[in-house]
Amino acid sequence: MAKAVIADDHPLFRAALQQALSETLAGEVLEVESFPALQALLETERDVELVLLDLNMPGNKGLTGLTALRNLFPDILVVIVSANESPEVIRRAMAFGASAYVPKSSPLPMLKEAVSVVLNGDNWLPEHLRQTPANEPDTASEDFAYKLEQLTPQQFKVLSCIADGLLNKQIAWELQVQETTIKQHVSAILRKLGVINRTQAGVIFKDMLRAEEELDTESLD
């Protein structure tokens, strides 16, 4: 029986997703309303197979949460459920490892279909997006996704902190390690990403994982 987690900060929408999943999954469905809560939950609930992830929720910035899940919990399937229907964002989400992308405007039967397809081992997009740019390969994102996969979980955390503008000393305090350890991680990150300095690494990370339209579209929910 598959155990799933709904990660969304809108209670009414979580309730709707609960209804849909209860009719699709035989397993337990848990709920969280922030990305830090999701990470904490996944650290303890090791049998979770599926996460329904909102792109715009506390602690999540665009596609950063998706890439963090793929890095920290690579065996968990991630279905993006978002109000953002930008073809570019959808292409990037799929390139960075999402198993499906479900617009929040979709009827619940469509969500059920997506979950069923994903649990059967396939990727899923709404029919109206399958013959659009959203379904075309995104070589640049796929290349960056491959580079991110080469990072250890700790290196990924360091890169996220760099993108947030933190200095090595601040990152060391944040991760409770020595500053020399952070410097070693930074050197490895630069090498694996093929960039020359930490500023470039942070800029590329933020640029590749952006989803600017999210705030505007989510506000319409």
Give the SSE map.
Blueprint: E1 3-7, H1 11-22, E2 29-32, H2 35-44, E3 48-53, H3 64-72, E4 77-82, H4 87-95, E5 100-103, H5 108-119, H6 139-149, H7 153-163, H8 168-175, H9 179-193, H10 198-208, H11 213-218
Parallel strand pairs: 1-2, 1-3, 3-4, 4-5
Helix pairs in contact: 1-5, 3-7, 7-9, 7-10, 8-9
Structural overview:
This is DNA-binding response regulator. Keywords: DNA-binding, Phosphoprotein. It comes from Aliidiomarina taiwanensis. Residues 144-209 form the HTH luxR-type domain. There is one protein chain. The chain has 221 residues and is of the alpha/beta class. The protein folds into 2 domains: 3-137, Rossmann fold (3-Layer(aba) Sandwich), CATH 3.40.50.2300; 140-208, Arc Repressor Mutant, subunit A (Orthogonal Bundle), CATH 1.10.10. 52% of the residues lie in helices and 11% in strands. It contains 11 helices and 5 strands, in the order βαβαβαβαβααααααα. The protein has helices at 11-22, 35-44, 64-72, 87-95, 108-119, 139-149, 153-163, 168-175, 179-193, 198-208, 213-218; strands spanning 3-7, 29-32, 48-53, 77-82, 100-103. The chain has a 5-stranded parallel β-sheet with strand order 2-1-3-4-5, sandwiched between helices. Strand 3 (48-53), helix 3 and strand 4 (77-82) form a beta-alpha-beta unit. Helix 7 (153-163) packs across helix 10.
